[in-house]
Every structure is written in structure tokens, then in C-alpha cells.
Write a structure and sequence with these properties.
Layout: H1 2-17, E1 21-24, H2 40-43, E2 49-52, E3 61-68, H3 81-84, H4 89-108, E4 112-119, H5 126-136, H6 138-142, H7 147-177, H8 190-197
Parallel strand pairs: 3-4
Antiparallel strand pairs: 1-2, 2-3
Helix pairs in contact: 1-7
């Protein structure tokens, strides 16, 4: 969630800096036009970020930011060497999932939908990166020589992602090493175990 929010906020700041109005989790984004066939759950979905009055593509664009791992971490799904050699395999799967979920109802409401997909390696899906670069072209119209600005914002998006990945790893390590909790859950550290092992009753067979 921290990775998601950090990237989303950075892209919002990028859009604002380029002169584009942006809104987080717009309520009613898919209820502008009533189209039969969509459920209430679909109509009540909120995009991560809405961009208004873009001078390219459709005037109004909605984004969904998502991160995925190349290696399955849930279930017993096989992960083969050939799968590992496929670049952006997981990102492409997530991209298609998001398109299937959001694109039909976005089109029905005259909106353009773009999934912004990262893999945990830090790589961005090619279509996602293409949209961000298209957004960055707006700096060419607002500033002379916007090359440095465009690099700055690409680096900021990357840093916002990698910073939260590093933070997640750090917090996981802290958890594995042991953190003192309230409500009777104690640390896993060796000194704690040694201190209290002498007063603990052995487990009977």
C-alpha cells in the first residue's frame, strides 16, 4: 500500500507541475453516463488517479497504479526457468487484468484508461512508461528545454517506488529479527529466549 500511494502521489505531483488537474480516487468517475450491463460494484469503482483536460489522447484519463512480482508468492503456481527468461511476464499479466477490469467501463464513460504497472524489480510496463513519457512532453510546451525536467520526474517516480521497496524490506527484517509488541507478543531475539528459557516449563511428550 505504501508503494502504491507513494507512486500515485508522485504522478499526481507530476501532472500538477505540468499544468494538469489531477484528483486521487475520484468518486463517481464511472457514473457519468448510465450504460446498461455494468454492475453497481463496477460503477462504484474509483480510479487511483483522474487527469482532466489533457491536450492529447482523450481529454480525461483515469489511471490505476499497481505493483506485481515476477515470482508467484501465493499458491502452488509453477515458476519455471523459461518463465523467468520472459521479460515483463508478470507485468503483462497484471496489465491485461487491469484492462479487463477498468477499460470497458472507462470507455462507456468517455474516459481513457491507463494501467501504470511496475514489477518489483523496478521495471515499468512498456505501455505504462509510454503514457508517462507522453505526459512528460507537456513540459516542452511550458518550459524551454524541458529535458532535465523530464529526467527529474522519471527519476522521482523511480525513487518513490524504490524507496518504498527498501522500506518494506527494512520493516520485514525488523519483524524477522523481532520487535517487542504489546498484548503479550514478545520478541524473537536470542537474548530474550535465553533469558526466559530457564523459567519456562518443558513441553511434555
Amino acid at each position: 500500500m505504501n508503494i502504491h500511494n507513494s507512486v500515485c502521489n508522485t504522478i499526481k505531483e507530476l501532472a500538477n507541475s505540468a499544468g494538469i488537474r489531477a484528483k486521487r480516487e475520484q468518486v463517481g468517475a464511472f457514473q457519468n453516463i448510465f450504460v446498461p450491463g455494468f454492475t453497481d460494484k463496477q460503477r462504484n469503482m474509483r480510479p487511483d488517479l483522474s487527469l482532466f483536460n489533457l491536450p492529447f489522447q482523450a481529454p480525461n484519463v483515469v489511471l490505476d497504479i499497481s505493483s506485481t512480482t515476477p515470482i508467484p508468492i501465493f499458491g502452488n503456481a509453477p515458476y519455471t526457468r523459461d518463465m523467468a527468461k520472459q521479460p515483463m511476464r508478470a507485468a503483462e499479466l497484471r496489465y491485461q487484468q487491469k484492462m479487463n477490469t477498468y477499460d470497458p467501463i472507462a470507455k462507456a464513460n468517455n474516459l481513457k484508461f491507463h494501467p501504470i504497472i511496475f514489477e518489483t524489480t523496478g521495471s515499468m510496463h512498456s505501455e505504462s512508461l509510454a503514457f508517462i513519457k507522453e505526459l512528460l512532453k507537456l513540459f516542452d510546451d511550458r518550459y524551454q528545454g524541458g529535458t532535465l525536467l523530464k529526467k527529474y520526474w522519471l527519476d522521482r517516480i523511480s525513487c518513490s517506488y524504490q524507496h518504498q521497496v527498501a522500506q518494506a524490506i527494512r520493516e520485514k527484517l525488523r519483524y524477522l529479527k523481532g520487535i517487542r509488541y504489546s498484548q503479550g507478543v514478545f520478541e524473537n531475539r536470542a537474548d530474550f529466549i535465553h533469558e526466559y528459557s530457564s523459567v519456562c516449563l518443558p513441553i511434555s511428550n
